[in-house]
Amino acid sequence: MKMRRKGILIVVSGFSGVGKGTLMKQLVHSYDNYALSVSMTTRQPRPGESDGKEYFFVSREVFEKTIAENGLIEYANYCGNYYGTPKEYVEKQLEKGKDVILEIEIQGALKVREQFPTALLLFVMPPSAQELKKRLEGRGTETEEVIDKRLKRATEEAEGIENYDFIVINDKLEECVKEMHGLILAAHETPDRNQEFIDNMRKELENFAK
Amino acid sequence: MKMRRKGILIVVSGFSGVGKGTLMKQLVHSYDNYALSVSMTTRQPRPGESDGKEYFFVSREVFEKTIAENGLIEYANYCGNYYGTPKEYVEKQLEKGKDVILEIEIQGALKVREQFPTALLLFVMPPSAQELKKRLEGRGTETEEVIDKRLKRATEEAEGIENYDFIVINDKLEECVKEMHGLILAAHETPDRNQEFIDNMRKELENFAK
């Protein structure tokens, strides 16, 4: 079955504070079929960030040239800075058979699906809203106001859940990583992601019938 | 997560000779979340078959009464005998949280989906058409004519594959059983099969925002 394996583009969304980042890092660390997509941005690198790792840091001119050349799968402008997903890296990894993971919010996720109809959309949820609140508070770094803002934002994000292929409940990290991997393995077995295999089978069967 | 588990109705189709029966038996034997649906028929029991195990054997009158009472999920008439899926047994098992497995061909599968929109449709395929031919020949019990008929029938059945949620490649039995179980676990994590959980999360989040 290895020979018919093509990479899937996986879009991960979910409430702020739910633990998406840790989950994705652990997934990439635990299995060898994943590649993390690296975004391009015009914002300045923060201390400790390096080009090509957290982001590709580019000038406004380079970013706008990349847009003009249709080199981004999606992009957005937050607080005066551009953020986007370079297409070339993603396509290269998919061709190699890697499943490429991309963290992005709902609007971006839907844009990705337009260009990659077989993209897999995963939405990470806490086991309960109470648990999400606890996790946000537990960080100890945020004011009550910021926590309230994030919970309100979660309410808005929750509106789009039905657009996703699967929900992923992040209760215990290790279990959740396994579950997420299982969902991605399953996604490889849909007919639309095996069209070549199915078409070949049909041709072979028709030849027998002759 | 156990508390939000509801059973899924699983429809298994696939080419004759591909090993669906063995696969389903092994699945039910290996995991405790499955129940096999038992069909109702008006045909006579064969030696060794017993009522309620291979089939519910009933008279034509009882079968037609069951149709009239809307007691069947689907039914068909083959060679003058009725075959159908009793609704009550399936619904009881689903309520208990069991995933109910049903072997049926494409027309029946599509009828099931009309009544159970969250039914999961699996299509079992051989690793290659050549392998299917080999398995049919390997039985040693069929004439060349019968084998040709089955291969022709497979060509027709292959037309409907895109209607299924997942394809299942039956190469090595044990691996295939695990893979099939994985697909069913994944299916439990779609938004439409977790609507209650999602709605509750939304309500909880909205309450925080007040």
Explain the overall architecture:
The structure is a homodimer of 210-residue chains. Chain A is an alpha/beta fold. Chain A has a single domain (2-37, 98-209), classed as Rossmann fold (3-Layer(aba) Sandwich). Chain A is built from 8 helices and 9 strands. In chain A, a hairpin with a 2-residue loop joins strand 5 and strand 6. In chain A, helix 1 crosses helix 7 and helix 5 (129-138) packs antiparallel against helix 6. The A-B interface holds A 1, 123, 125, 127-130, 132-133, 148, 151-152, 154-155, 158, 161-162, 164-169, 171, 179, 182-183, 185-187, 189-192, 194, 197-198, 201-202, 204-209 and B 1, 123, 125, 127-130, 132-133, 148, 151-152, 154-155, 158, 161-162, 164-169, 171, 179, 182-183, 185-187, 189-192, 194, 197-198, 201-202, 204-209.
Task: Give a brief outline of the structure.
2 copies of one chain form a homodimer. The first copy, chain A, has helices at 20-30, 60-68, 87-95, 106-115, 129-138, 144-157, 173-187, 195-209; strands spanning 9-14, 34-36, 39-41, 55-57, 72-78, 81-86, 99-103, 120-125, 166-169. With 210 residues, chain A is α/β, with parallel strands linked by helices.
List keywords for this structure.
homodimer; 210 residues; alpha/beta; Rossmann fold; five-stranded parallel beta sheet; 8 helices; 20% strand
How is the topology of this model organized?
The structure is a homodimer of 210-residue chains.
Chain A lengths: L8 E6 L5 H11 L3 E3 L2 E3 L13 E3 L2 H9 L3 E7 L2 E6 H9 L3 E5 L2 H10 L4 E6 L3 H10 L5 H14 L8 E4 L3 H15 L7 H15 L1
Parallel strand pairs in A: 1-7, 1-8, 2-7, 3-4, 8-9
Antiparallel strand pairs in A: 3-6, 5-6
Helix pairs in contact in A: 1-7, 5-6
